[in-house]
Amino acid sequence: MSPDHLWSLAALAGATFLGASTQRISGVGFALVASPFLVMILGPFNGVIVVNVFGTLTALLVFVQVFRQVEYRRVFAMMIPAIIAVVPGSWVASHAPPALLSTLIGAMIILALVASLTVRQAPALQSRFGAAAAGFVSGFMNVTAGVGGPAVTAYALASRWKHAAFAVSIQLYFFGVGLASLAAKHSVPALDLPQWAACAAALVLGIVLGNYVGPKIPAKASRAAVVVLAFTGAALLLVNGILALA
């Protein structure tokens, strides 16, 4: 196995591990943390598919542990518009040039993070329309950039959805939207067997770690860590995309 392939395995496993552990701890960490790095490693289209696959699996593995605590009505108010938005989003993901798509993904992640941190007092997001709008934006971003968390996080903050309830309920949302995103693309990740194995092992280890340390980490601290990691990855991805376009 060549050094380049070993580096690729380590990078894939590291990104997946970070994403899975933060997802279990904060509720919305997988795509935000893993997407920029996986896109840089695998390219924008294949990288986002990998995010969709392992993000969906992470959400499912967490959901089966907490399904009794899920607030199903609030979840479906966001999920239905999100699945509708997957259709135009999948067309963009399939037809945009790779360099342009990388730039758009980095920019969308940064803008979405900024929005999620600044719209906490937005009255429009506190209504059913706000839930639907957040779901639509989230679904579009999930299929194009692999990142659906910031929009629904903004809705949760604006509507004063308790963090503990949101963190468990949103797993069903990510599972449903992730399946819709994969179905719309009609594609699977182009990974070899060692890469699949490395990502799967990192996924399980990340969730196990999240189960152990999650209750010990304050919600504000876990969210801050996710934001810092996501901003770092998105900024690097944006710069790489701009350089490729130039």
Would you mind describing this structure in some detail?
It is a single chain. This protein is mainly alpha-helical. It has one domain. It has helices at 3-26, 29-42, 44-66, 72-95, 98-118, 128-145, 149-158, 163-185, 193-213, 219-245. It is globular. It starts with a helix and ends with a helix. The mean pLDDT is 81.
How do you describe this structure in short?
The chain is an all-alpha fold. It has ten helices and no strands.
Number of strands: 0
Euclidean distance between termini CA atoms = 34 Å
Q: What percentage of the residues does DSSP assign to strands (E)?
A: under 5%
- The backbone outline, from C-alpha atoms, is globular
How much helix is in the residues? over 70%
Structural class assignment: mainly alpha
| Largest sheet: number of strands, sense, barrel closure | none
How large, in whole angstroms, is the Cα Rg? 17 Å
Q: Which segments are poorly predicted (pLDDT under 50) over 5 or more consecutive residues?
A: none
| H/E series | HHHHHHHHHH
- Averaged pLDDT: 81
Domain module count? 1
| Tally of contiguous helical segments | 10
List the helices and strands and how they pair.
Elements: H1 3-26, H2 29-42, H3 44-66, H4 72-95, H5 98-118, H6 128-145, H7 149-158, H8 163-185, H9 193-213, H10 219-245
Helix pairs in contact: 1-2, 1-3, 1-9, 2-3, 2-5, 2-10, 3-6, 3-8, 3-9, 4-6, 4-8, 5-7, 5-10, 6-7
Label this structure with key terms.
246 residues
